[in-house]
Amino acid sequence: SGGSGGTMASESEAQRALQYEQTLMYGRYTQDLGTFAKDEAARLRLQEGDTPRPRRPSELLEYTQGRCAPCRVCALQCQRFLISKVGEDWVFLILLGLVMALVSWAMDFAIATCLQAQKWMYGGLDTNVLLQYMAWVTYPTVLITFSAGFTQILAPQAVGSGIPEMKTILRGVVLKEYLTLKTFVAKVIGLTCALGSGMPLGKEGPFVHIASMCAALLSRFLSLFGGFYENEARNIEMLAAACAVGVGCCFAAPIGGVLFSIEVTSTFFAVRNYWRGFFAATFSAFIFRVLAVWNKDEETITALFKTRFRLDFPFDLQELPAFAVIGIASGFGGALFVYLNRKIVQFMRRQKTINRFLMKKRLLFPALVTLIISTLTFPPGFGQFMAGQLTQKDTLVTLFDNQTWAKQGISDEFEYLGILEAWHHPRSNVFVTLVVFILMKFWMSALATTIPVPCGAFMPVFVIGAAFGRLVGESMAAWFPDGIHTDSNIYRIVPGGYAVVGAAALSGAVTHTVSTAVIVFELTGQISHILPVMIAVILANAVAQSLQPSLYDSIIRIKKLPYLPELGWGHHEKYNVRVEDIMVRDIRYVTLNCKYRDLQQVLHGTKMKNLPLVESAESMILLGSIERTQVGALLSSQLSPHRRLLTLRQKVLSEDGHRLSDSSIRFQISTETSSGSPARPALRKPLKPALKRVPSSPADSPPVGSADHTGIALKSLFCANAATEPTEAQGTTYHKAKRVRISIVEEMILGDKMTPAEILEWEEQQLDQLVDFSSAKIDPAPFQLVEHTSLHKTHTIFSLLGLDHAFVTSIGRLVGMVTLKELRKAIEGSLTGKGVKVRPPLASFRDSTASTTEADTTALRQLWDRHQHHHMPREAGPGGDDDDNTPK
Amino acid sequence: SGGSGGTMASESEAQRALQYEQTLMYGRYTQDLGTFAKDEAARLRLQEGDTPRPRRPSELLEYTQGRCAPCRVCALQCQRFLISKVGEDWVFLILLGLVMALVSWAMDFAIATCLQAQKWMYGGLDTNVLLQYMAWVTYPTVLITFSAGFTQILAPQAVGSGIPEMKTILRGVVLKEYLTLKTFVAKVIGLTCALGSGMPLGKEGPFVHIASMCAALLSRFLSLFGGFYENEARNIEMLAAACAVGVGCCFAAPIGGVLFSIEVTSTFFAVRNYWRGFFAATFSAFIFRVLAVWNKDEETITALFKTRFRLDFPFDLQELPAFAVIGIASGFGGALFVYLNRKIVQFMRRQKTINRFLMKKRLLFPALVTLIISTLTFPPGFGQFMAGQLTQKDTLVTLFDNQTWAKQGISDEFEYLGILEAWHHPRSNVFVTLVVFILMKFWMSALATTIPVPCGAFMPVFVIGAAFGRLVGESMAAWFPDGIHTDSNIYRIVPGGYAVVGAAALSGAVTHTVSTAVIVFELTGQISHILPVMIAVILANAVAQSLQPSLYDSIIRIKKLPYLPELGWGHHEKYNVRVEDIMVRDIRYVTLNCKYRDLQQVLHGTKMKNLPLVESAESMILLGSIERTQVGALLSSQLSPHRRLLTLRQKVLSEDGHRLSDSSIRFQISTETSSGSPARPALRKPLKPALKRVPSSPADSPPVGSADHTGIALKSLFCANAATEPTEAQGTTYHKAKRVRISIVEEMILGDKMTPAEILEWEEQQLDQLVDFSSAKIDPAPFQLVEHTSLHKTHTIFSLLGLDHAFVTSIGRLVGMVTLKELRKAIEGSLTGKGVKVRPPLASFRDSTASTTEADTTALRQLWDRHQHHHMPREAGPGGDDDDNTPK
Fold this sequence. Notes:
2 copies of one chain form a homodimer. Mean pLDDT of chain A is 72; it is low at 1-38, 48-64, 408-412, 658-747 and 831-888. The first copy, chain A, is mainly alpha-helical. Chains A, B: It is found in: Basolateral cell membrane; Cell projection, Axon; Cell projection, Dendritic spine membrane. Chains A, B: Homodimer. Interacts with auxiliary subunit HEPACAM. Chains A, B: It is a multi-pass membrane protein.
């Protein structure tokens, strides 16, 4: 995983090539760069020595001595105190919460205004249905098209939910341009327009992304005041908190926000980050609600979708089967939604003709989808059968309503007041309206969330779930008009409670989370239905998880982000598969005493990003791992024109003095490397923030052993010998090579007097030299596994440490390698057969019945395998036996 | 970390030596033993070959063919299906939930009966105050004394909360006898008696322990039906779920239970275990509440301490400062509670005379404490000023009451009905009662929780917090009789809401958790006060965490359990300390070509449990790690009488045949080891469950290279050469040596004809031989760190992987070692100066102001350090430079 230099703008969301780089949890240096930069700065300061460090505050003090010194002193002390405080976690979290609450509130306000405008337009034109229709359809189409175009132009990374990407980022992968100001602006404006259009789109996912960008920008801003925000590990922790803030201030649900963000983004969660999430999310939710009070929307802080269900007898025990039915049905529904959503995306991509057409007219697809959906929801048209004029928020408010709409199956007994009227149709009853609403919204939502605008799917699914719950609730109410309970008191059934349960269950099924239960409690302000909600959510999860990946995992797979699938529910065979069954045995390696030619061959022979460095081909003792780019750099530095010219000059000057000057070069190298091996690669990498304060340092010793000087020889290496190499090699190396090639031309003209044949000869000669690893960046402790490590444990370690590869060793000797790819294959192979492919319903149940015999055969095969392999390594063993064989 | 053979019963809870063994997360074999056992079983089955495997169900079928075959077939199929299902996670979780709900309910019932009995006795004797007092005091004293004695005799491990132990166990440490049936019985009965006494004791912690024991026993029981429960990793996951069940069914709070158990027991939490906890806790809470309905206690499922606060305007924004005050005060109070609790324990231990006396009369201390506390709560006595006659449950119900007790500061306006009457004293007002209650209960709870009975501190603290909140609430209500809000509607202040906030804040402060907020919502069934509760809990946590460790961490430190302290809030210096600053450089190691004498010296020279195995002293390339016990086994096998007798016999038979027979022994060893290195050590360890099915296997090859044969030579090694060794060495090795010494005597009598001088000579000769490592269990991939790894990262990796040591390497070469001890020192050194010592209040704030200059000096020192150390290893470098120095 090379440098972060490549900034190739992504061109289309369909074929977007996601560039990523693995960041380090273990054994690599990038994490320590912040510290390194500080050390470096300290060294420079030491070098400056006698020249006094400029202390800005005191300088300022001297200038302003005349006027009101004590006041100034006080102000300066305050300033200094504040700056020292800026580094504290809680200051950052409070600022993050504050900013996000303001953003959230402002966006809510803008969205409400947009929706109001549409309603006003629609209402004002009630004399002419055609005009009304035009207004109803044009308005969202324009907004969505604008949103799509705007994000497309400014930052295509802003498209979609953002949760899949955040999940990948929190795993330690750096996605380019995902946390920049440009993306932030694109996402905020794009999302506001998209939601303002009234389409069935959500804001939860985008809010997670927005909050993360907020955190990234804020930490970059605050690092102006001090170096506290340069540590990558800390920034990852802050991002995890930001995800919680995103959900928290979207729903004013701090607890649910924290839990949801944990479930959705993490595999292993550091409990020490827990308070961060709670702190920031609570503060954010608090400010968000206070703003509503301050704006006189509310009298005091209350829940967003407050319900007023009966407290003393919220539900009867005998209603629980109905709740369980909601849960199971929601599980199937959720899986179907994920499936449908993925199929739509895949269909759009597979149809070459459609795809090519849409590529050209990039805004046509959003416009078309919006047109269809808004036409169908047109209230005087088909919309009247599906409460089309209600916004998402109004829909939820009505669905969570305390009253029972259908009494004894006849809907006309009940007075529909206010916005409730939308559900009432004179020629049909409320059941029909609800069924139509659910069916239509289901495919509309699945379709709408594929539009390339910033949008999520949580809220639409939540609404559908609420409607489904309401439908079941109303049916129950119609079936048992006086409640089920046969006691003295009549406790009627509360269909609103069913709606709450349905909302939690369906959204839980789609996202594979349990915390939607907590979110609904916080949203409605009532926890009385805790048991039905929990039961339904767990059942929905059980069903959905056995059928489909979660919506976010599905998107991760579609976008081909680097991920590690979860281990399924209780698959025992996981414990029986071992590393030796899945590892790659035939790996290329670099030996300590190899020649440059060997490096060249290794580079051509493999695509691995990290090459193992072993002591010798005989002993195979693993010493460390070296990055592919480093190997390339070693090669190019050996074949650099500069070195060639140096040799040439030396030859010309004196054949005898050759030995002397060569050793002086060697000396130069070794003094440089003795200042710490991470120093050199760090300087070579484009790490702007870390190196901002040491601008003069790299200029001291430019030429020797550096990768920045490559000649035609390298060109030949890259282009002639292996035409495929440049595409295989990482973008950075390629870029560097290109850039360098141009800058080298002048040097060639100036000093190069060797013929191409001579150069080739010289290079052949150079390639036969032994490799000098002293200037290479070697990871001295790459992660090692043992052959017997189980797949389950390997998965745990990979996800715990965010690894992308590990070497398999046996008593120091390298025997194989496992990468994310092998692991993924092993897991998916046993999980679903063919990756994303849908499993037949209830496959998990069938699997488990067959598991006993299967496990037996696996065990047998393994035993056989192990017996076979165990003879092999012992033959090349480290000689422990041989030593003792000499008799005393 | 040696074998688990030592079962020395713990004698006193004061000086109890906790024996523990590190289990593996990484690179060791124990985890794979389940699988190994299966493989072994498969191998045995293969060996049996032609003899048909007995299939019990079909055999049964044949016997009963005559009677009603189809019915039997059906039953058998059902049975087979059920057995196959037993391995599923959800079956286990449902069973666990069911069992725990039943246990919880039965215990609640027993406790309620006990309390009822006391009340009845006290009520019945109201004619005579002295008799009444006797009854009031004797009853709890007897119960507590019985509880203390019972647990002491049956299982001293059952004493106390159990959460600290569970935290340690979940970190991967095996605590002996902590999850056995005996401990389960002791804990259940002891806890029932202790809580039935009416002392201020809690049941949350013990319930976590009980649930974990339930899970352990259940998995042992279910493993009778199949091998699914032999995997240690899975059992740990199930234990984590069990902790959630414990809290969940204690309070009927599934969500809060899961979160609380995560916060309290985990450092890194696997999100894939999340659903397990939710599933089991929900089921358990459901059954627990259903039992209450079934018992006609309740009409339907509701919250345990249901509140009926006003929903439409739960609190005013301007009341928030009062809630914040509750939070901050609770933070200080919580820290004080932890401090007080620890000081009492330390005082009891330090006072030698008291201690010796109490050791003798072990039941005196519990009786004395109970006597004091029950005397003070005697209702006609001092108890009348502190609502002494109320049980914990009644106290909570009254504190969460919806009414305002004090109106305009005059308490007589309000009619105290029912149990509320206890708070009303004719000659004092409710404020005095509350203050007295809080003060008295505070020290009583801190004292009572040190009694050696199974008990927790959560509930007492929760009650005190509720009383404190109520006090603030009543004061606010007296201060603003018509509410703060100056609008048309008068919204009076709800003191019950304050009580809820106070309860959550104080219990959160003591346990350092945020999830108490969720627990109160679930307990009260109302979420309307979410923001005040969250704010107070977070503030309380902030204050308490900066002052004191959590109650559980405090107990962990007192009990000296193997733990890793948490990194504090935003201590930036953590990022600047590196492994090279804290690692031990001077470590003993074993080389591949060393002699047995070297092993002896290494064993004498170090106390490390794991010794690094390097290639040679020159190269220092780390090949693996070898356990101390393994080294001891190698030595004793080399010096074993059996080997000596063999040599003797060979000498006697023929001097020429010597070479032949020695090589035949060698052959025997190598065939054995070629069947997989984990095989041998696994057989040697006392792993009963894993090896139950392979009883005949270890008997095949008893003598060669085994550790079970030790002679007087070994005795001299252990006793003469180093008198301190036996105490230093692990209990297991010592035990083994003792046991073996006795069994060896007969062998000596039978065949040993060498004089002691000859033996000594022979042994000296043996010690000069090269070590044969082929029979030793070597961890082929011990965990490695780099010198530059930051303390923060090291901490993360240690707690992620549950390590207790890691080697520090530099390009394959061993340069140092970090153990839990160094890490702990480094963290505590920077956190608190001297471990448990209390930091001055607000130390964190002072720290941060000084951090900038401190960081600078640290950076400088580090730079210097790094420069120094980098020359050192390069001199002994792996020859990369040297090779290239030869000019072409």
